[in-house]
Amino acid sequence: MITDQLPTIVLADLLSTIVYSVLGIVLLLLTIVIVNKLFKLNLHRELVDEHNTAFGILIAGVAVAIGIIIAGVIGS
Question: Nearest Cα to 70, choosing from 31, 15, 33?
Answer without folding.
Answer: 31
